[in-house]
Amino acid sequence: MSAFWLSEEQEAIREGVQKVMDGFGDEYWRKTDETGTFPEEFVAEMAAGGWLGVAMPESVGGAGLGLTEASIVMQTVAQSGAAFTGASAIHLNIFGPMPIVKFGTQAQKDAFLPRIIAGEDKMCFAVTEPNSGLDTSSLETRAERTNDGYRINGRKIWTTSAQRANKVLIIARTTPKAEAKKPTEGLSLFYADFDRSAIEAKPIPKMGRKAVECNTLFIDDLHVPADALIGEEGQGFKYLLQGLNPERVLFAVEAIGIGRIAIAKAAQYAKERVVFGRPIGQNQGIQHPLAKAWAELEAANLMAFKAAALYDAGRECGAEANAAKYLGAEAGFRACEASVLAHGGMGYAREYDVERYFREAMIARIAPVSREMILNFVAERVLGLPKSY
Amino acid sequence: MKVLVPVKRVIDYNVKVRVKPDQTGVDLANVKMSMNPFDEIATEEAVRLKEKGVATEVVVVSIGPQQAQETIRTALAMGADRGILIVTDQDAEPLAVAKLLKAVIAEESPNLVVMGKQAIDGDNNAVGQMLAALLDWPQATFASKLEVTADKATVTREIDGGLQTLDVSLPAVITADLRLNEPRYASLPNIMKAKKKEIAMKTAADYGVDVSPKLKVLKVTEPPKRSAGIKVADAAELVGKLKSEGVL
């Protein structure tokens, strides 16, 4: 069994990230949430410390570490109080470029990855579509061959930070679903310039994480050169799948990080807030929901780091990664709810930050995959029940 | 100029120390260990000297268990160049540590030793002074500011009632106080680089130094529990209390 606690090197990573986060207090994140201003200063600091390249290969300027270390980085970010505003601002840099790492040519890797790690190129990820959702094989965006590359047309939704991106990793159909051998074939992956003359990005007003916007993309005759194609034409879906398990684990640890700061703040408040002549934290009615939240968070965290350890060892981790994302998101959300309730009226006030965590914690329950699809996966793949959809 | 920085692996300053039930020492099982904070300050100062171009090499030495390699790695990740670990399972006493360091210095011939003023576990505040005496080198302890040229160091020291500035000729032993600097945290690339830096593994026998204990610990006890204070209503009552307790 792999260890249940951090090695000293991992501890050094946690401390290094924490040091960056110390420079970005509650005030900073409260303000980004109010104004919707992207946390550029924070991202610049993370890039300067080399943290964006934690899981990228050493040959292109990364640290060559695993999902475990990437999880430590991302959890430390979320747990500092940056929550998903901080985590989502850099989340895509961590494993998003993996298809390029694994399937790109050497020339593509050399051209693209160092700039992503340094924070010079800002990438967004255009996968989900309004008419296909989780049914990725049914996506409708088309890429047609031209003399020197491809012409892409279609619509995407929930593309995070498309407003500041100068690059886009986009999946599109190169062979119509009916003509492809399998529904999951005929999809291709491109890494291209975010050409604003051909892509219109409209932010979607949403419940939380105002500073890191999500967009609807309208793609109208986007020309991309032939060398924007990652790997083989028609194999894009397979490439995308490679990144799914790490992404689930990252979502899990981020949600757990938010839950941890939420209950830490609640415990602090419950110690200080005196009602009926005693701190409210002396009441079991306040204690038990927080203690339960702690237990659920830490159990979920074990599952997440187990999934990460399996992934890093090159073992199958689908069930664990899915279960971790389910458990982490649920535990994170319930911890935030318990925290808001422990704060009483003050929990509803922005000044105490926990309502922001509560709103942001919903993200991990929905993205990148619904709870229902996770349970479908476990039912079918682990329990051997018939496919239900 | 070569700078030698001795570092010690100690219980992390955030850990609440517990005395073993048999009162022979403190419980180290499953306790977070870190570099002695004053040694981190010393390492930072040495690395800054290197960054300023004054020092050319920073060598870190530690005396302790195998795991003290991690402590050396921390210093290497901050920017030190290489490490030496003298492995011993005993908690070496200050004089033994000073003798071992003297032997290391005979091999390495550094121009400057920068070390923490004391380790936060034993709080002896002895090794720097002993080392300087054994070497017959000048010493400047409790440094809060350090400037080094080719042949001398100007050291501001924190002393009772103020600051004292000393010039010491090199080679010399300087011990670092809390306000000398604020140590950096390693960036990820530097943590990765530190993995590839060399750590020489030695034993006390390699240096012909006897590290067997000369001191006998009779008993280790918890400090007495502090009792709760009292609240006073106003300044007059406070002054009254201070007078009646004989403070004023």
Structure description:
The complex is a heterodimer of chains A (389) and B (248). Chain A has 389 residues and is α+β, with helices and mostly antiparallel strands. Chain A has 11 helices and 10 strands. Chain A has helices spanning 8-22, 26-35, 40-48, 67-95, 98-103, 106-117, 236-272, 284-312, 318-343, 354-366, 371-382; strands at 123-126, 142-145, 149-160, 167-173, 187-193, 199-203, 214-225, 229-230, 274-275, 278-279. In chain A, helix 1 (8-22) crosses helix 4 (67-95), helix 4 (67-95) crosses helix 7 (236-272) and helix 7 (236-272) runs antiparallel to helix 10. Chain A is globular. With 248 residues, chain B is of the alpha/beta class. Chain B is built from 6 helices and 11 strands. A 9-stranded mixed β-sheet of chain B has the order 9-8-7-10-6-1-4-5-11, with helices on both faces. In chain B, helix 2 (68-78) packs across helix 5 (188-196). Chain B is globular and about 60 Å long. Chain B starts with a strand and ends with a helix. Chain A binds chain B through residues 8-9, 11-13, 15-16, 18-19, 48-51, 53-54, 58, 63-65, and chain B through 32, 67, 70, 73-74, 77, 185-192, 195.
